[in-house]
Structures are given as structure tokens and as C-alpha cells.
Amino acid sequence: xxxxxxxxxxxxxxxxxxxxxxxxxxxxxxxxxxxxxxxxxxxxxxxxxxxxxxxxxxxxxxxxxxxxxxxxxxxxxxxxxxxxxxxxxxxxxxxxxxxxxxxxxxxxxxxxxxxxxxxxxxxxxxxxxxxxxxxxxxxxxxxxxxxxxxxxxxxxx
Amino acid sequence: xxxxxxxxxxxxxxxxxxxxxxxxxxxxxxxxxxxxxxxxxxxxxxxxxxxxxxxxxxxxxxxxxxxxxxxxxxxxxxxxxxxxx
Lengths: 157, 85
Prior knowledge:
The structure holds two protein chains of two kinds. Chain A is mainly β. Chain A has one helix at about 65-70; strands spanning about 10-15, 15-20, 25-30, 30-35, 50, 60, 75-85, 90-100, 105-110, 120, 130-135, 140-145, 155. Chain A has one domain (about 10-155): Beta Barrel (Cathepsin D, subunit A, domain 1). Chain A has one helix and 13 strands; from the N terminus they run E-E-E-E-E-E-H-E-E-E-E-E-E-E. In chain A, about 35% of the residues are buried. Chain B is globular, with a radius of gyration of 14 Å. In chain B, about 25% of the residues lie in helices and about 20% in strands. At the A-B interface, strand 2, strand 3, strand 5, helix 1 and strand 7 of A face helix 1, helix 2, strand 3 and strand 4 of B.
């Protein structure tokens, strides 16, 4: 783990293709490989793809990831969230560590059962930590760099 | 173990790389709601499991490196945002 204060270079990624239902082709998503850990499970998880979603209030992960961290899902702070389809879901907040491409930091994130994806990186816990620049046309890239809050982060490479 | 094989490109997939095409085909092969271990080159599904923990354990058991884990939705549809309520 590198010393705190070492700012990693700006990172550039390509959008990743995801299938849509048969006949509907595919779509491009901005995703990052993420690991998470917790005080009860300090070894970071295996990497999983999380969707960058600046429209999401915060970071939201599938409950299966809480299980992997040995977190008691419903012991967290209970709340609810709603999507554009007015579908309300129960969520539980837990404090964890996120490991995002060489940067490790603590954040309060939500977990919920039966999400359609492993996780979403939203405003609180991700976009308040990184400056992200999307280029949603060819070459379909996005750039990620720590924001002004970088001094609060721990860099490990 | 499951595997996705890149097929002859359809019109919808023209203009994307072989690797990207392989990724799409591979992801389509993952059963709904399952967790999949995607190979380092993103063209093969190395393992499928009911939970993230099982998928990670399978990846470790297989000695994989450079992989990433994904969850397949019940249907492959565009995703939208959430907000607290």
C-alpha cells in the first residue's frame, strides 16, 4: 500500500457492451471493476463490475455482496429507495471500504435484495470522491480522477 | 461451468471488436439472476453461481486471474437510477 497523499494518474476506461434482450441488440455502460471490504471482513472481495450512475443518490450493492463481507444485512440503517418506475425497494446502509482502481476509502453505502446488477456507483460515495468525464460517443470512453477530496483517500499503489 | 462462444456477427453487432462481440455473447449465456465469472479477455464465462461468494470461490478454485464478476439481471434491459424515499 502506497503512502497516503500519492495521487494516482488519471484513469481512462472504455464503456463496456452489455446485451439487451434478443433482437434488441446491445448497450454501452460505463462500469468499473470494484472491490469492497469491511471491518468484519478486511480482505477485499473479488472484483466485480459496478455501473457508474450519476443519477443515483448513492452507491447501492446487491445483498449477496453484504453476505460476502459477513455483514448482517438488516442490522444496517433501514431505508427505502425508488427508481424511475416508482418501484420502492428496502435498502440497508452499512459503512464499508471501497477499492476503486488503486484508491481505497470508506463510505456509507446501501445494500438491497435482488438487484438486477452487482452494484451502482452513485453520487454519495463515488461522484463526491472522483471527477468523472464521460465521452458517450465514439470512442465511448470515460476518465476518472480523484476530486478535491483526494487528501482524504488512501492510495495503495 | 458455462461458456459463451462468439458467433457469426449479426447486423446489430457490426462495427464492434471481436472481443466486445464475444463479451456480449458470453453475457447472454448467463442464466437470469446468476453471478458469472468473466474471463480476463472478457469473452468467456468461466463459472456461474447463485451468489457472489460462490462465484468468487469458484474463481479462486480455478486459479483465475484478471477476471471480474457480474450479476445477470432477470432481463437485459437498460438500467435507471434510484433515489432514497
